[in-house]
Amino acid sequence: MNTMFQLVWEATQQTIVMVFLSTIFSLILGFPIGVLLHVTGSEEHGGILPHPAFYAVMSRIVNILRSFPFLILMIVLMPLSRLIIGTSIGTMATVIPLSIAAAPFVARVIESSLKEVDPGVVQAAKAMGSTNWQIIVKVLIPEALPSLVSGVTLTIINLIGYSAMAGAIGGGGLGDLAIRYGYQRFRPSYMVAAVVIIIVMVELIQFIGDRISGHLISRR
Amino acid sequence: MQITLKNLKRNYASLHAVDGVSLDIPSNTVYGIIGRSGAGKSTLVRLISMLEKPDQGEVYYGDKRVDNLPKDELIQERRKIGMIFQNFNLFASRNAEENIAYPMEICHMDKEHIKKRTEELLALVGLEGRGKAPVSTLSGGQKQRVAIARALAVEPQILFCDEATSALDPQTTRAILALIKEIQKKMNLTVVMITHQMEVVRDACDRVAVLDAGKIVEEGIVSDIFERPQSPVTKEFISALTTVHDSVVRWSEDGGHYTLRFRGTKTGDPIISSVTLKTGAVFNIRAAGVQEVDGTEIGVMITDIGPDKQIAAEAIKALRNEGVVVEETEEGF
Ligand SMILES: Nc1ncnc2c1ncn2[C@@H]1O[C@H](COP(=O)(O)OP(=O)(O)OP(=O)(O)O)[C@@H](O)[C@H]1O
Ligand SMILES: [Mg+2]
Asked: How many Cβ pairs within 8 Å bridge chains A and B?
């Protein structure tokens, strides 16, 4: 029993680290792309620097990456992990493909949140002599904040799911535990423990995300 | 600051949204631009306020040409004008005073100055003590007051109002227009007021230009335009004025083939009686009243003139000689 607790606890920690780091990295990658997609998009959708050609190429790349099945993307990106971290197995090695897989999703989520910002408000900011940077930082992001928080919540929840899948190919964490112990060694208790913890994590993140977003809206 | 427009044109695909507009907007006035929906008002105001570049033509603020400025200069120049909108366009992420502070923040003014100026502006628009209020808790009129304060934050010389009162009820509209007029006088502003409501022109503007299908069809001092509207669009706007119905008393629901407009002192002269004596015309008055346009009284009378066409024509001639504007109306108003 003691060893099970220890194994589950370790796997949980690994999952938390994996999800935490890949959330950060996928935001670092995806957030600027999302902003770029929004600002270079068409004027009707609130683009402040419309650039149809750039937008079309960027949008295509994002779509292609998003339509890749995650497991295949993982396998394709393994060599990249080996190049950067020196190994293609383990928690840290999983963070890289996870982040890259989630980045296009993040980009779309950010883009669609920014699209919701009232174009009239952006026009007002422009009329007052805001630079494009000021419009992004002082208008678009603050105006879209509650929706951006919901988007990040959704990203984290997706990453929890992805990280469990990543476990299947040697990534560590709760998914790995469920497969190695629960499935391959016929210990259903491990499977159940892993699944329950994942469900609790998802619920918790959703709850916290909703609270923050709700709080931001209630202050308006 | 005087604004001069020279032959401005802006097309959207094959649509001539603004089609050769030339105007002189004198400094220190409230200048109305009225037109029906789709006439090109918003497009025109975007061109004048440097939000969009014209396909052709020139815009001058004073002697400075502003329609072809390079990006950095454009941003600097925009920081010297104020603009308010139909939907207020306040930042939901900021409370009232943070909204007012925005234009000062983006010019990197120091915090102390911003704070002081914000207080002054809140007082100016009658919202003392409401600075901390989230925008969503304000009424429409209060939102527009915040927007006005925000527009005035950088002490502009020009204020653009695009349908600034269209989302407000009549009472609030009057209050906001009074505020704009008051501020205009206090700050010697040039106010460009875009509207589709003739009462806004009547209550707030000194001069007006009538825009139709991208072209200026009429321009002049407001009381002149009310007295002698030339274009069909202008006549339509004037007859659609709700207050005409309010202030003009109607005796009969029937016809009334002619609309007579009298100006100023003539309102008091016995013109009708003297025309009757001179020509033998008979007036059957259907409706009559006095409209006040920007401090000038204009009498309005809707009448049939008899007993026959010939005498009626003579009577009309006599009326016109007296300076009365006579219009044939199809079904009165
Ligand atoms: N960005 C745009 N792209 C294409 N067409 C446009 C654009 N902006 C305006 N138009 C067209 O130009 C014409 C004039 O539009 P504008 O918004 O200037 O009219 P308006 O007088 O302000 O009308 P309203 O009273 O309804 O606001 C309309 O036919 C409109 O459809
Ligand atoms: Mg408009």
From this structure: 65
